């Protein structure tokens, strides 16, 4: 307790000691282990062993694991053995003194080995069972070794590579190659062939361009050849003379003993190379904002509003750079738009980028000056502020339409009469009555 003044009296010893008697432990051993007299490398073998409890009592633990090893040594050395299989033993607490159990395991011998290999069986390999001082007798060796002979093996090698004389970067090309099994045994596994391209015949996998990987799924008997092909994408970063490497069984799925070194060959060995050319770069594309049409304006009166409907189309090969730009409406008294002409309206287009072939319809309305008449011209200038800097053809951003302006009858406002009071007081309001008369020929505008 946190408020306890002293803890020195919290422990008390019994007056007499407890007499603990060791329960006679079990003693697990491998009574025997055996396998076939002979087997080929890379083949399956079945091994049997017999576990025995030669101790005085059954184990208290209910399960443990047995392990099988092989070794060329006739004495067990942990660093010189190869683990081949494990098996679990269950209900081990029922293994009474003097009782035995049988186990078997089937496993595949390593490829490429040969010679005499002993079997070793280890019972309770993780020391899960308490055996007191009897842990050192858990491993037993087979009486006779297995005579392991080297099994026949396949040997895949590339025998030909055929290329087009010229390849074009970014385009496809077909490459042919052949592979022969020059080994003694059939190649039964599925494997992959891979094609590379490089400017030299020396193998530099870090620099070679990988072209394609092809799965080969059927067996290849000894002495037989297959021809394969692949349509590859020619790299765009290579040019000039190039060589193709064909690498059969790229992941070593087929065991070939000591003959993996002939799986990769280059086309020069078969008198073939290719010349890679890169196509000229595509010409750059631009947007082209064009005032496609202007609706005719029949006539208008000076001093009044005039409205123009128009359509803008992107006739270029690229999308407009800008998301918005300004369209302007000009008034001119001649067919040429210049600095002397008046801006009578403008508006911002804010509907996003315009893709090739797309268009938009719009309308601009502005007030005409007073006092003009006769034939005049309205100009629509799209993207006047050149927000679309990838529009390099500016001459078609402008379009005009002619119309007739009628002179609006003028007004003439005059003060007809007004009068003052005879006398006024300073600081007070005064009224001045007056009348205005329109002596012109036209009405005033609201």
Topology:
Layout: E1 28-34, E2 38-40, E3 44-53, E4 64-71, E5 82-89, E6 100-108, E7 115-122, E8 139-141, E9 146-149, E10 156-162, E11 166-168, E12 172-181, E13 191-198, E14 209-216, E15 225-233, E16 240-247, E17 264-266, E18 274-277, E19 289-294, E20 299-301, E21 305-314, E22 325-332, E23 342-349, E24 359-367, E25 374-381, E26 398-406, E27 413-418, E28 434-438
Parallel strand pairs: 2-9, 11-18, 20-26
Antiparallel strand pairs: 1-3, 3-6, 4-5, 4-7, 7-8, 7-9, 10-12, 12-15, 13-14, 13-16, 16-17, 16-18, 19-21, 21-24, 22-23, 22-25, 25-26, 27-28
Share of β-strand residues: 35-45%
Mean pLDDT: 93
Count of discrete alpha- or pi-helical segments spanning 4 or more residues: 0
Low-pLDDT residue intervals, each spanning 5 or more residues: none
What does this molecule look like?
The protein contains no helices and 28 strands. The radius of gyration is 50 Å and the shape is elongated. Strands 2, 4, 5, 7, 8 and 9 form a six-stranded mixed sheet that branches. With 446 residues, it is an all-beta fold. It has strands at residues 28-34, 38-40, 44-53, 64-71, 82-89, 100-108, 115-122, 139-141, 146-149, 156-162, 166-168, 172-181, 191-198, 209-216, 225-233, 240-247, 264-266, 274-277, 289-294, 299-301, 305-314, 325-332, 342-349, 359-367, 374-381, 398-406, 413-418, 434-438. The relative contact order is 0.10. It is 0% helix and 43% strand.
